[in-house]
Each structure stands twice: as structure tokens, then as C-alpha cells.
Amino acid sequence: MRIALLGAGHLGKIHLKCIRSSGCWDFAGFYDPDDKNAASVVDQYDAKRYPSLDTLLQDVDAVDIVTPTPTHFALASKAIKAGKHVFIEKPVTQTLAQGKKLLQLAEKHGVKVQVGHVERFNPAFTALGDMALNPMFIEGHRLAVFQPRGTDVSVILDLMIHDLDLILHLVKSPVKKVSASGVAVLSNTPDIANARIEFANGCVANLTASRISMKQMRKMRLFQQDHYLSLDFLEKNAQIVRLYDQDASNLPPQDQLMEFETNAGKKWLQMQMPEATPINAIEEELRSFHEAISKNQAPVVTLEDGVAALKLAQMILKEIALRKAKVD
After folding, report:
1. Strand order through the sheet with 113-116
2. 286 and 244, same structural domain?
3. 3-state SS, residue 145
4. What is the pLDDT of residues 168-226, one digit of tens each?
5. How far apart (Å, rounded) are the C-alpha atoms in residues 92 and 97?
6. For the chain, which terminus, N or C, has the lower number of CB atoms within 10 Å?
């Protein structure tokens, strides 16, 4: 299958290299309206530049949209109407109405659409495998140093949305309540924010995202009955701590356990670091997109998933705006 890239900026160049190294796609070329940037891509990567989007769409089976968020809807809708499969970076669209419209278009034209919530492919997350997860408290920190690129959207849509997708994937329950606060420090939209998300099943997620930090951090901690899980998306590893009753029938070997006393009696503690297969997550998500098309199956991260994450992000932004209005 032939695929072309829309947008050859910083992240677009990474996607270009990953498409070529994925081993499954036939890379046709790219479209970028910026002449200076496009010329450098042609020189550096020996890639074909299409003169227009219409010309590109006539020559491919799928497109990879890695452009500024405000352009996502127009590009994706045109590609879908042309019968092309679409990979689209997060956030899926600028508005929820646009996301819902893409859902209608994708169903009407029978194409696959995958959203670039890349942390689903992070070794820290995939290391959990098919482990039964039922978290009742989630804490996430996603911190980054300031970069001018990406400030066309708030930190919620730029960074926190990764964690929003993850918690919606993990917690199989409707969102009941959202509380949030955020501050615009270096840009016109919130650069640091905290959100508390309560689900109908009692689970609570407390998320912090910042793009004005002195250090990088991408961690998530999950707490559930007899389990504590720590995921480090930056270091790409996971740690699982599990408690067993002393009379449990499924106790691991004694040399893997630590004994201690609690108010409820003796317990056994096991600490594990499941093997995290070293992979390029972007390459893997593009490979999975190809597989979804070739096997006619749902993508790992569906368009519905992308719209759900955007909906929750918009709820958080609304709460931040309401809080600010009360102060002003």
C-alpha cells in the first residue's frame, strides 16, 4: 500500500523516517506548502514533493497527517472523501464538532482512521500485556521543557491528551465529574494544568501536565485492589507491586516474595519489572495502521478513541475557563 505524508515539520520528518523503516509501507512522498521546508526535505531525504494535495490523493491509498491541529479537519475530511485511509496525529481535530463530522465521513466512505495517541505503543504500557486492570486511583505527571512549537494549542491538547486517552482506555466507566485549573504563563493558552477526573465506578484520576518545567517527566501510577503499577513512559519501563494473602493458592515462588505484617494479617509482596520490548513507538503505530487496513480490522487507536479524548480535553478546558472567569 502506498502512503504519503501531509506536513513535513519536526514531527513530520520523524514520521517520514518511520514510514520508510516500518517495512510495510510504500512511501510515495509528501505535501507541505512551505517551500523552504519542503526543499530541505527533498534534499535531506530524497523524497518526492507533491505540488498539491489533489495530486497526492490521486497517487496513494492512505495519508499520514502530521500538520498543525487547526488544519487536521480540512485535510482529513478531504482525504476521507477521496476514499483514502487516514492516520492523523493527536489531537484529532480542533473542535469536538469537527471530530464528530469525521466519524460520520469515515463511516460513509468506509475507510480506516487511526489517531496518533502514541503512548498506547510505548513499551512501558505494552509490557503490561493482557494483565487484568481495574484501577481505582490514577496519578499522572507529564512535564516538558518549553518549546515554541506546539503552542498553537493548550497544554491539555498538546500533552495531557496522551494521558486522557490512556485513562479512558483503562477505565471502562463513564466520566462523572471534572475539576481543573490551569495557567497561561508563556503562551496565550494554559501552559500548566491539573485535572481531577471522577468516573461513575468510583475511580479518580489526578493528572498534571506542564510544558514549562525544568525537567522532563512522563509517569503514570495506577492503584487497584492488591496492586500498584508504576509506568515510566520516558524510560520505557514498568514496575508492578502485588500483594498476596498468606494462604493464597497462586503464590509465586518464595524467593520472589517479601513477607510483612498488616492489620489484616500476614501478607506477601512481589515486585516485578515486566520485560519491555524496545521498539520505536511511532514506527509501531504506523505498522499497526497498515495491519488494520490489510486485515480489515479496527485500528488500535480508533477515531472514536480520538474523539473521546478530545471531548474530555474540552471538558477540562471549559472548567479552567470557568475558574478563571470567577477570579476575573
Report:
1. 26-31, 2-6, 62-65, 85-89, 113-116
2. no
3. coil
4. 999 999 999 999 999 999 888 899 999 999 999 999 999 999 999 999 999 999 999 88
5. 11
6. C
Q: Is residue 286 part of a domain?
A: yes
- CA–CA distance from 118 to each of 9, 194, 239, 323 (Å)? 18, 21, 20, 31
Give the gyration radius of the chain's Cα atoms.
22
Nearest one of 132, 133, 162 to 305, comparing CA atoms: 162
Contact 140, 222 (CB under 8 A): no
Confirm whether 328 is domain-assigned.
Answer: no
State how far the Cα of 107 lies from the Cα of 171, in Å rounded to an integer.
26
129, exposed or middle or buried, with CB in 10 Å at 0-12, 13-18, 19+?
exposed
Three-class secondary structure of residue 12 per DSSP: helix
For residue 243, what are the domain limits?
A: 122-278+314-322
- Find out whether 201 and 133 touch, Cβ atoms under 8 Å: no
Cβ neighbors of 44 (< 8 A, separation 6 or more) are none
Q: Indicate the pTM of the whole model.
A: 0.92
Q: Do 133 and 273 lie in a common domain?
A: yes
